[in-house]
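job 3f2a | input accepted
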Amino acid sequence: MKRLLGIGAAAAALTYFFDPENGSRRRNVARDRVLALFRQATHMREQSKAQPDDVTLARKVETQIFRDADVPKGKINVNAENGKVVLRGEVEDPSMIEDLEKAARKVQGVREVENLLHPAGSPAPTSSS
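job 3f2a | predicted structure (129 res):
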């Protein structure tokens, strides 16, 4: 019985793929899908990226945190050293301090963030601890 089902399935596949009208298209589509699966499987493994140098990391963080137009670009300084990013400066909105720190932490290559941002009119912190 199993042999008969196997022969029937093979006959159906041959009829499907070697149909005079649509067989060529069906074979090409099947080939493309199988090759796409192999290509996709090789691209699914993400390559580990090297740690960016300090200047590049600082620029990447600046790009991320200064996307919002409300962020005062001239009042915030971003430094990076060995994956540690230091944010210094003054912001108008105190809730922005935490948002900027979260945005900086999301940047690839950032290992630690020291947040020395402070609201306008308050004294600047000397360290985050």
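job 3f2a | The helical segments are 2-17, 23-43, 54-65, 95-105.
job 3f2a | closed
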